Amino acid sequence: MGVIERVVEPGFCSGCGLCAGLCPSEALEMGLNSSKDVVPILKGECSECGLCLDVCPFSGEDPGIDDTAEGLFGDVPGISQNPVSGFYLSLWEGHVCRKDFRKRGASGGMASWFLTRILEQGLVDAVLSAGPDESRPGFWTFIKAKTPEDVISQAGSVYHPVPIDAVIREILLENSHDRYAVVALPCLAYGLRKAMKRIPRLKEKVAMLVSLTCGLMPNRRYSEYISLESGILPEDMSYINFRYPPGEPDSSNYRHVAFSRKGEQGRPVPVKGLPDLLWRHEVFLQSGCLICDDVFGETADAVFMDAWLPEYERDTRGNSLVICRTPLAEKMIRDGMEDGECEVREIVYERLMQSQKETLLVKRHLLAGRLARLEGMGVSFPERRVAADRKVFQDNGKYFRFCEKLKAAAQQVELETFEDLEAFNRLIGSFLEEENRMLVEGESPFESTE
Ligand SMILES: Cc1cc2nc3c(=O)[nH]c(=O)nc-3n(C[C@H](O)[C@H](O)[C@H](O)COP(=O)(O)OP(=O)(O)OC[C@H]3O[C@@H](n4cnc5c(N)ncnc54)[C@H](O)[C@@H]3O)c2cc1C
Ligand code: SF4
Ligand code: SF4
Ligand code: SF4
Description:
Blueprint: H1 3-8, H2 18-22, E1 28-32, E2 38-42, H3 51-55, H4 65-73, E3 80-82, E4 86-88, E5 90-96, H5 101-104, H6 110-120, E6 126-132, E7 140-145, H7 148-153, H8 165-173, E8 180-184, H9 186-198, H10 200-205, E9 206-212, H11 220-229, E10 237-244, E11 255-260, E12 269-270, H12 274-280, E13 302-306, E14 320-324, H13 327-338, E15 342-346, H14 349-355, H15 357-376, H16 390-395, H17 397-410, H18 418-440
Parallel strand pairs: 6-8, 8-9, 9-13
Antiparallel strand pairs: 1-2, 3-4, 5-14, 5-15, 6-7, 10-11, 11-12, 13-14
One iron/sulfur cluster (SF4) binds at residues 14, 185-187, 214, 216-217, 286, 288-289, 292, 294.
């Protein structure tokens, strides 16, 4: 039995692509399922070797995230630990001052700057980061960034699954000693750690793992919806800039904008409104994300995220928070601060938690209710670090019923044409009003921002 039966069919795949990249029989290929999740599809003969299960972050064949992190960082002198954030040596807040990292970055540009510094200091030969898939317009893949210019050209956040299969195959086969830093979402970071244990050659190749904090990944349907809202047919879309600068003075209301294959830019789509409604209510998300309990990329050496803090609400230039788990990662930040490339200051743990309040609500608290819902349906799932909690499910009964109703409505239309979009918006529009009412009357677990 492989990942198809154990992970994909029950709906636990995040689309990371590790299984397809590492399958020795090349039996798996990344594609789309009927919900438009990016998943592996069986295309060749499976020898039942079990490697895909050994590397998959959702197979349950696990050392587990906690034990993996303990093995990596448990002995680092001065390290602290918390069950929600994982290990941390130091926590930082700030932004990059050098060149246009801040302008190009999703937040304060700290991730691209950090990766550039690693590259410039010769600690790695290239960075594997997310970029447009040139062989498949409108999709994303991992790209080898060999120069600082390459790294900065991949800045920004990709809210579409980015499978790592092709580049993993390539680096394992290449005839060189090149070593890489990988920017991975938490699930991929953990899967890579599992794979590095199993495949010594991969351990030689991956010298550093950097993660982004992750609050759920949209699936392909989300990009199709954004493309249409932006005024571009999904079949003509070549790329979406998911972190187009905010139009009004509110840093969290960033916009998405699609580009056509002829290079025309579409209309910017603010995330506040329907996109946020979908994210909050489990619509157009990779199904595996709904059981994910790793917010802070707990197995990565350093983690980058948005500074979603009240002081920065009106600062649309972008600000970052950073978790360092190794002395080397911390040294990079301190050196950058001393030589003026970035303006950062150390912060306390509570500030980190404050900035990720909504993500923690969705991925930790409400997860307990989602797991109870699965248990109630008789679905077994891989062991999680958050326990299923029937009380959370019942206390948020109105919210969970609303999610089901919205999901059912959203499934009724394909999103291929502008007529589909009109029909979709007609169906979904009333849910926005209903959500507003629930927010005002305290029936939603989310806080009203009005
Ligand atoms: C799906 C998703 C959900 C997120 N959820 C949260 C959240 O809940 N809270 C929060 O604070 N931050 C979240 N982030 C992180 C945030 O959007 C920024 O990426 C982060 O703050 C780093 O910004 P920066 O300016 O420092 O990085 P940048 O300088 O913009 O560099 C980002 C680096 O990450 C790479 N990258 C972008 N997207 C992906 C991807 N999908 N897979 C692999 N590599 C990628 C880029 O290629 C680039 O190298 C999320 C990111 C993603 C992709
Ligand atoms: S069990 Fe082995 S051969 Fe079969 S899909 Fe998984 S990795 Fe490939
Ligand atoms: S989560 Fe990753 S490794 Fe697991 S089945 Fe999905 S693509 Fe494969
Ligand atoms: S929510 Fe979890 S499973 Fe989904 S992309 Fe983020 S880290 Fe991966």
